[in-house]
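Quick one:
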Amino acid sequence: MNNNKSPDLLKVILAGALVLLVVHTLGRFIYTPLLPLLIQDGVLTVKQGADVASWNYLGYLTGAVLAMRWHRIEQIRSVLPWALGINVVCTLLQTQTESFELLSFLRLINGISNGIVFVQAPALILEWLARHGRASASGLVYLGVGAGLIVSSGLVSLPADLLDGAQRWWPAFLLSVPLAVWGWRQLAQLDVPSPVQIDKSGAPPSTRLLDRDSTPLFLSYAGAGMGYILPMTFLPTLVSQLDDMPDFLVGGSWLVVALATLPAPWIWNKAGSLLGDSLALRLNYALQLMGVLFVLLLPGPFGVLMCALLVGGTFLGTVLLSQRLARTLHPHQGPRLSAALVALYSVFQLGGPWLTKQWLNSGGTLQGAFWLGAGALIWGLFWALWVPNRQAS
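Output:
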């Protein structure tokens, strides 16, 4: 029986990783390395770029809220393939327009579909893993995001001299189609029953999302949402504005982030298993905060490099550790908790680009806006100190 389980586990993890790669990197984060090129092509200004990012984050929030509504297993099976398909279609349509207004609308729809998939796919897989006693492997699904950042970097940089304007979205679309189709075909086969809604005493368990144990986790995760989004959205643009930056950082800061992100899910999955998810989460926040402070206090090549390495190497760890901790606190409502955390994350990451825009409009610098991210991560670290240390089964 064990011989049959291992290949199934690998296939499920790979399918989830590819689905997240499609929506969260080829659909979403590829915008970060594309933005300096779109500005260079005259498609967007820096302020318009922040606006477009804000619409995408608003969509991501909306998608997470919808995922809270559609949290039952049978609903996930119905909604997930539609959201995945819409996400890919949005990428196709982005190849056909350079209109700021239409691009903003498409990034809004992209965000909605991404939010739904980013909640539902890992939640479905986590429930399947928990059923088979392998919940501790759930963080490996996020390897798709790390791999996708490297892929997205290559899809932007390699054809940079061959494509222009809206054409720059074509490589992402062409790769998204086969990955999305194969990924969903595997996930559609998962045998996941609905959670039993009765506790040991025979009474229905509480449906409250916030209690003494879970509230610190939610407050901490709010800081994570605003803390990571500034470097993950604007670091390449910031590098292009700083003086005396070496060419490899001007053109490759996003690649450094991507390389740091690639092993991060495995590292933080392992750290959670060895240290406990709660202690690992505190270490994660501390390192992420150091990354933002480096680019603020040492705004040269070394500071930029450390920011790319530390933020890239930690932000997915925050996600996987928080999601797994949430399920240990309320195992009977795992998908709903996952959606609630992503919705909260989205609210605060939406505030990052909006506040950046206000700061720029008032004459501030992009580098100065990064102080907001540092403050948010201090908040996240403080509340992480109060999250109970429990392990996934």
